[in-house]
Design brief:
Phenylalanyl-tRNA Synthetase, Chain B, domain 3, seven-stranded mixed β-sheet, alpha+beta, 27% helix, 6 domains, OB fold (Dihydrolipoamide Acetyltransferase, E2P)
Length: 840
């Protein structure tokens, strides 16, 4: 919201010495985000005056049209003689009043004006356009033509209000009242302790039976509608300079008098309005929900297909406007330019000032991708009590500026509603802020905001109509705190009780991150939002539990309305983007929450702010949330080891993904089982199923391996991309994260190698498990170091697995016989379990 300081001073008597920077500091202290202060005309220096064109001579022989003009500038040039000026613009004629800058002046941007010879003539100054004066968009981009009654020689800097300061405020979603000069003026009045001259305090006639007929079919969507009629508007009437300049300063383009007046009142009072050409409205004006498939051409010339939830303004023909967003082209106001082109200028208008449902307008604007000044205000909250005053203000300006006549009929339809009342303990703001304000300060600050306050220890607060964001006691506490000054809150460090460091879950999270980073992975944090089509891209079965998602009511993107049930979509998207930007050797990881809906849906209760929530409060809150287990995932593509002078490189493969899971399990102190598996996006022949044992039962906690070529093609990923995802919480529950110092024995190790031949379908993990169990307590470690599958030597469908077994006793040096016996026991059990035989 752009707020000219000159306009703000009309409603608050700010000290004359206060600059825009001073006002900015005050408003920031009160909680408004004043981003910048623009100094209009800061480097502008006169003489800049009003002149009247006396003669125009067309100069021939140049590539573009050039005119040599004489202009009467009165006594501004010191001689009273006509000023000779060369100009290339053609939107003015002899007799027009224009803005002339004389030699010695400086225009915005440091452009100095002097007499100079050009096109064979000497030009003593310039005839100015709005762009050259830094006025903003006036819709013409040509020479400024002033009203005929403008006095020749008058100072144009003052006439055009070229010197001003404009505050640019980033209005937050809860402060719709500050999308108006009235709302910002109220904040400035409070900040300076000055009275406010409220522009909405007008004498407004009551409704009667003579107003324009209006019928509201949806009182929920539209709870208030005021209609006024003005007739006899002059086709020659133009928006006065002061009105155009104020619109330009707030960032709007002047269009025509009737439209400019409605825009001006909207910026002044915060109430969006719309003017209909009465001659084009057929019958009763109505407010209803659109019928599915209805169409309307809006003022921007676009035909829009309406949704059944859209709120529309209608007449007897059908929709004539998208309520609270944009009017329809079939009742558009026609100005004097239309009359000059053979049309009819609008002489009679119907003014609409209504109050619409915030959510309905926000959804319509988003659905049609049509954000307007009106919708921005309605979706943030508009003062419903200001509609009648805004309509009256519009009528008054049209009568004053366009010579119109206000009809006696007043239409005002409103649904019955009671003011919003909140009961709040008088010391509640004290408890929230940790500062003792006292009852008198609390009452005074709430009254300054516009609340009616009664009571002693418990206050009964009636919220003003222009602050729909004040909904509960904490909103009232925030008003007191911000007006007393956030900067006055003491900085108090919390005192954590002893013995409460990081939780075991937090410690594991950090250790896993460090371990994966040490293994060469780069952490990539991703948004937790997904679209449900990603599950098809990953090849998940139709009944896969991962397809059950938690959907957001108000997602950031309609394409990703759900919360993730897997970390892979985000990580694979990051890998694809980096690969597309030239980084082909990638190893990424992420640890984060995934979200699964609970079978029973509950609503979270509001937590107290004056004390720490109890364990029951926190348990109830947790029960209302979806299940949120923490997962860890990695993705790999390209080279895992780079080639160089030291030797050959190695591409990333499924074994790297499996090893990353083992790295995580080691940090959790858990024993992770690995076996052949098949799931979703992984290649069925290169997928490892990861499991842990809980109470004697195996529980699958993740998968790792190479992704399916079909998934790679669908997602646009590099060939042979590998991935791993693990339920970190499940691994933590079976692990022991107690720090263990490495054991160092004084006795030597005995190493025995065995090569076992098994059927090729037998997983190496089963062979290893049998060897480990058969070797007994003397086995210190076991490692698979070779896989051999020569059919000529081993037979068709068989493979050889070579293991290195390390034996050690804690209290003695093992003999060769002891180590051999343990090895033989291990081989025997492997033969019994999986049919393994020693390779000869």
């Amino acid at each position: 919201m752009r707020v000219p300081l000159s306009w703000l001073r009309e409603y608050v008597d700010l000290p004359a010495t206060e600059t825009g920077r001073d006002v900015q500091a005050k408003l920031i202290s009160a909680g408004l985000e004043v981003e910048t202060v623009e100094h209009l005309g800061a480097d502008l220096k006169g003489p800049l005056v009003v002149g009247q064109v006396l003669t125009i001579e067309e100069l021939e022989g140049f590539k573009k049209p050039i005119r040599f003009c004489t202009v009467n500038v009165g006594q501004a040039n010191g001689t009273g003689e006509p000023q000779e000026i060369v100009c290339g613009a053609r939107n003015f004629a002899v007799g027009d009043k224009v803005v002339v800058v004389l030699p010695g002046a400086t225009l915005p941007g440091g452009f100095s004006i002097s007499a100079r010879k050009t096109y064979g003539k000497t030009s003593h100054g310039m005839i100015c356009s709005s762009d050259e004066l830094g006025m903003g968009d006036d819709g013409t981009h040509g020479i400024i033509v002033l009203p005929p009654e403008t006095e020749v020689g008058k100072d144009a800097i003052e006439l055009l209000e070229l010197v001003d300061e404009v505050l640019d405020i980033a209005v937050t979603a809860n402060r719709g009242d500050c999308l108006s000069i009235r709302g910002v003026a109220r904040e400035a009045a409070i900040a300076y302790g000055l009275p406010l001259r409220d522009p909405a305090l007008l004498d407004v006639p009551g409704p009667n039976a003579y107003g324009y007929p209006v019928k509201i079919a949806d009182p929920t969507g539209c709870d208030r509608f005021t209609a006024r009629t003005v007739t006899g508007l002059s086709a020659e009437a133009r928006s006065p300079i002061w009105l155009q300049r104020r619109l330009q300063k707030v960032g709007m383009r002047p269009i025509s008098l009737a439209v400019d007046v409605t825009n001006y009142v909207m910026m002044e009072l915060g109430q969006p309005l719309h003017a209909y050409d009465r001659s084009l409205v057929q019958g009763t004006i109505g407010v209803r929900r659109a019928q599915e498939g209805e169409k309307i051409v809006t003022l921007d010339g676009t035909e829009r297909k309406l949704h059944a939830e859209d709120l529309v303004i209608t007449d007897d023909r059908g929709p004539i406007g998208l309520a609270g967003v944009m009017g329809g082209a079939n009742t558009e106001i026609a100005d004097h330019d239309a009359a000059e082109n053979g049309g009819n200028a609008t002489s009679d208008v119907v003014i609409e000032a209504a109050h619409f449902d915030q959510v309905s307008i926000a959804r319509t604007a988003r659905r049609h991708k049509l954000s307007s000044e009106a919708s921005r205000r309605f979706e943030r909250g508009v003062d419903p009590q200001a509609a009648a005053a805004a309509a009256q203000r519009t009528v008054d300006l049209l009568v004053l500026l366009a010579g119109g006549t206000a009809e006696a009929g007043v239409t005002e339809i409103s649904a019955p509603s009671a003011p919003h009342t909140i009961r709040v303990p008088a010391d509640h703001p004290d408890k929230v802020a940790g500062v003792e304000y006292g009852r008198e300060t609390v009452v005074r600050r709430l009254q300054e905001v516009g609340c009616d306050v009664y009571g002693q220890d418990e206050l009964i607060v009636t919220v003003p109509s222009w602050r729909p964001d004040l909904d509960d006691i904490n909103d009232l506490a925030e008003e007191v705190i911000r007006l007393e000054g956030y900067e006055n809150l003491p900085s108090t460090l919390p005192r954590p009780p002893a013995g409460r460091g990081l939780t075991s879950r937090q410690r594991l999270h950090r250790r896993v991150g460090r371990a994966l980073a040490g293994a060469g992975y780069v952490e990539a944090l991703n948004y937790p939002f997904v679209g449900e089509q990603v599950f098809d891209q990953l090849g998940l079965d139709a009944d896969d539990p991962a397809r059950r998602v938690v959907k957001l009511v108000n997602p950031l993107s309609d394409e990703e309305p759900a919360l993730r049930t897997s970390l892979l979509p985000g990580l694979l998207g990051a890998l694809r983007r980096n690969d597309g930007r030239g980084a082909h050797d990638l190893a990424l990881f992420e640890t984060g929450l995934v979200f699964h809906p609970r079978d029973e849906r509950r609503v979270a209760a509001d937590l107290p702010v004056d004390r720490r929530p109890s364990e029951d409060d926190l348990a109830a809150l947790d029960a209302a949330l979806p299940d949120q287990p923490r997962h860890v995932a990695v993705v790999l593509a390209g080279a895992r080891e780079q080639a160089g002078w030291w030797g050959k490189g190695r591409p990333a493969d499924w074994a790297d993904a499996v090893e990353s899971a083992r790295t995580v399990a080691r940090e959790a102190g858990a024993e992770l089982g690995v076996r052949k598996g098949q799931y979703g996006p992984w290649h069925p022949g290169r997928c490892a199923e990861l499991f842990v044992t809980v109470d004697g039962e195996e529980r699958v906690v993740g998968h790792a391996g190479e992704l399916h070529p079909r998934v790679l093609k669908t997602l646009g990923l590099p060939a042979r991309t590998c991935a791993m995802e693990l339920d970190l919480d499940s691994v933590e529950r079976v692990g022991d994260d107690t720090p263990q110092a490495p054991g160092i024995s004084t006795f030597p190790v005995a190493t025995q190698d065995v090569a076992l031949v098994v059927e090729e379908f037998v997983p190496a993990s089963e062979v290893e498990a049998a060897l480990r169990e058969g070797a007994g307590e003397l086995l210190e470690s076991i490692r698979l170091f070779d896989v051999y599958d020569n059919a000529e030597q081993l037979g068709e469908g068989r493979k050889s697995l070579a293991y290195a077994l390390r034996f050690r006793a804690a209290d003695r040096t093992l003999t060769v016989d002891e180590a051999s016996a343990a090895r033989d026991a291990a081989v025997a059990l492997a033969g019994e379990r999986v049919g393994a035989v020693l390779r000869s």
